[in-house]
Amino acid sequence: MAEERSHITLTKSDSVNVVTFTDRKILEEISINEIGEELNKLVEGEKGTKILLSFTNVEHLSSAALGVLITLNKKVAEQEGTLKLSDIAPQIYEVFKITRLNKLFEIHDTAEKALVTF
């Protein structure tokens, strides 16, 4: 069952929280802060949480949004959890490569491929 939030849709696949972004463009500071808060709620007090972020709908991503992802990754690691990304558009993946974030995050072509690796 999908749980709609303001900027994300949350579904469960076995023990994995699958997060799909509802916004095509994640550029505005207010939206980015709200997304950060929504994602942090998934991690707070959850040991060993498993999160998959699917960027299926996302066409544009700001550098501030990348900062939120880095912070989330750190929090997930502190809780001994796992964070993986999928479905990143080629133009956004290019930014991940330039900033070397493709080395920090485990990135998969599709959510299906990512889910079998948890």
List keywords for this structure.
118 residues; alpha/beta; globular; two-stranded parallel sheet; six-stranded mixed sheet; Transcription Regulator spoIIAA
Brief synopsis:
By secondary structure, the protein is α/β, with parallel strands linked by helices. It contains 5 helices and 8 strands.
Topology summary:
Blueprint: E1 3-4, E2 8-13, E3 16-21, E4 25-26, H1 29-43, E5 50-54, E6 60-61, H2 63-78, E7 82-86, H3 90-98, H4 101-104, E8 106-108, H5 111-115
Parallel strand pairs: 3-5, 4-6, 5-7, 7-8
Antiparallel strand pairs: 1-2, 2-3
Fold and architecture overview:
The strands form 2 sheets. The chain has a 6-stranded mixed sheet with strand order 1-2-3-5-7-8. The chain has a two-stranded parallel ribbon with strand order 4-6. The chain has one domain: STAS domain (Transcription Regulator spoIIAA). The chain has helices at 29-43, 63-78, 90-98, 101-104, 111-115; strands at residues 3-4, 8-13, 16-21, 25-26, 50-54, 60-61, 82-86, 106-108. The mean pLDDT is 93. The two termini are 20 Å apart. Helix 1 (29-43) packs parallel to helix 2. The protein is an alpha/beta fold and 118 residues long.
Total beta strand runs = 8
The CATH architecture: 2-Layer Sandwich
Mean pLDDT: 93
How do the helices and strands follow one another from N- to C-terminus? Answer: EEEEHEEHEHHEH
How many discrete structural domains? 1
Number of helices: 5
Uncertain runs are none
Shape: globular
Q: Assign the structural class, choosing from mainly alpha, mainly beta, alpha/beta, alpha+beta, or little secondary structure.
A: alpha/beta
Largest sheet: 6 strands, mixed
Oligomer: single chain
Quote the beta fraction.
Answer: 25-35%
CATH superfamily name? STAS domain
Span between termini: 20 Å
What is the CATH T-level topology? Transcription Regulator spoIIAA
